[in-house]
Amino acid sequence: MKTSTLGLLLLIVSLSCGAQNNLSSITQKNGMIGIGTNAPDQKLTVKGKIHTQEVLVDLNGAVAPDYVFERYYKGYSALKGDYRMLDLKSLEAFLKENHHLPEIQVLKN
Length: 109
Description:
Helix content: 25-40%
Shape: elongated
Oligomer: single chain
Number of strands: 3
Strand order of the largest sheet: 1-2-3
Distance between the termini: 23 Å
Strand content: 5-15%
Mean pLDDT: 76
Radius of gyration: 22 Å
């Protein structure tokens, strides 16, 4: 996070604290900011409730595999026409062995 961005975030948080002016609950460590925590583990970690009007979640353009169920319910998939859903018995066996849906990329931690 750029220093100017950090400064702007701190200014916004300090203004939102109003009369309380409780900046002691804000921590910065290794380029990460914590609000309500002394151990932030992401760019912004908040321990407590957040009141907002909008949240933008961007998974870097990831396309969720909606085609898995689109074909099941519509009989075709506009997203991935060649996808073939397994019968439930085969799907259950695959899930027990592999712990993910067939042909769906596994999330690496």
